[in-house]
Amino acid sequence: MYMIKDMPKFERPREKVRKYGVTSLNTYELLAIILRAGTHEESAIDISRKVIRELSSLGELREKTIDELTSIKGIGQTKAITILSALELGKRVLENKRDKIQITCPETVFDLLNYDLKDLKQEVLIALYLDLKTNLIAKKEIFRGSLNQSLVHPREIFKYAVKYSAYQLILVHNHPSGDPYPSKHDIELTNIIEKAGQMMQIYLLDHIIIGDQNYLSINAHQKKRKSY
User: Fold this and answer.
1) Domain MPN: where (predicted)?
2) Which fold has domain 100-226?
3) How far apart, in Å, are the Cα atoms of 166 and each of 113, 143, 156, 203, 211?
4) Distances in Å between the alpha carbon of 157 and those of 95, 123, 125, 140, 204?
5) Tell me: the pLDDT tens digits for 85-109?
6) Is the pTM higher than 0.85?
7) For all residues of the chain together, what is the average pLDDT?
8) Which CATH architecture has domain 4-96?
């Protein structure tokens, strides 16, 4: 049994942070610091490696429940809660930073939401509510599941637009397949929300689909099709 205290001092995660900074650590070392301690049988690093091996991708860790984490040997409720709390704190720090950003192009939307939406196993529809100058006012998850225009009512989208006094909005959703090409339902939903927005004078700027490290703007896609 090889515990962290038995490691050479310069190899220990906390010592590496002190000397080289937190970016010098790999993923399992970061997780080991969050776990703080191992068990009588395994070090925190051993347990962290085991947790990482259980994941098909790092993003999957965000979807784990307490029960799923505690099913891994060496992870009790306290450690599971600590992991999930650390993930939520990181998410909120990023969201706080994003609240002050101006949405200037589809790439800005991708940079904002790629972390939230990549690697998810189901589709999630998010609305970004903007002021007249395209500054972000609020971000709201509207729907989670199999996205279909018949399941997403414009009322759910525009009630938040009214609440936040938004002038315009952008819809964003992911394709778990990794291919951001729009489906028939994606186009139909976009057209429905666009028409509803025109009636309410709350305008739909775009609908962005996020795939596997790529994205597609339905606005640009439809303009390109009309040009042929």
Assistant:
1) 102-224
2) Cytidine Deaminase; domain 2 (3.40.140)
3) 19, 19, 14, 9, 27
4) 20, 16, 10, 9, 11
5) 988 888 777 766 555 689 999 999 9
6) no
7) 86
8) Orthogonal Bundle (1.10)
